[in-house]
């Protein structure tokens, strides 16, 4: 059996040659999930890109992606996939979205003036889309990731006040007609929406494809459905590197620091001295939220 110590490059070479080892699920499976997560898990498909935390069905069992991969078989190696226990009692950390590391009272404390659109129940409903979020590693890391995500969200939306981008003059700029699918909802339809202000037609297309929603044709769904809005934010956090070199999720769970989450979200404008005031604002909020959750910030706070 190939184990985690085998480096990804070697595994990729083995995939190319067809010489891959196979394992079978055991009682010591690392992952664990509530039945609801597994009920919505898709069947594994070859060639589909999977990101850390994705759960799939395969040969009657469930597997969680331990590292990003381009559709490798769930039985290739525990570097990429681990068996996932859907009974909810496997001891794999925080398996049930209803056991989210942020309580509703803490959420309200973080966002005392939030817009009523951004509900706690909407956030919890979105968690099953990315079960690895705030559910990977130690309790310290889980709470740190939740604090990091919510700190950036707070900065992007003025404390969960703004649902849509405030500068309407920018609205027509977010259509790239060079894409084969164009902008079917209209030139000015792809403005920033939601907790991380999803914008551009190609981002609506990618997020919608990942979430099983037709956001390219109906981008307004992000500003009308709280769960969808939160799902798009989690999509970006867990799958997109933006101007950085890693996803915000990987930055926290791999101990690369809060600064790398800033880089993934708005690094081209804020990092490397671009706008230290904005960076400091994010860091201040992160420190506040980690205190509320009773965890530590870790190192590398700045970018």
Automatic annotation (TrEMBL):
InterPro entries: Glyco_hydro_19 (IPR016283), Glyco_hydro_19_cat (IPR000726), Lysozyme-like_dom_sf (IPR023346). Residues 102-303 form the Glycoside hydrolase family 19 catalytic domain. GO terms for molecular function: hydrolase activity. Residues 1-29 form the signal peptide. It comes from the Bacteria. It holds the Pfam family Glyco_hydro_19. The keyword Calcium does not apply. Keywords: Disulfide bond, Hydrolase, Plant defense, Signal. This is Glycoside hydrolase family 19 protein.
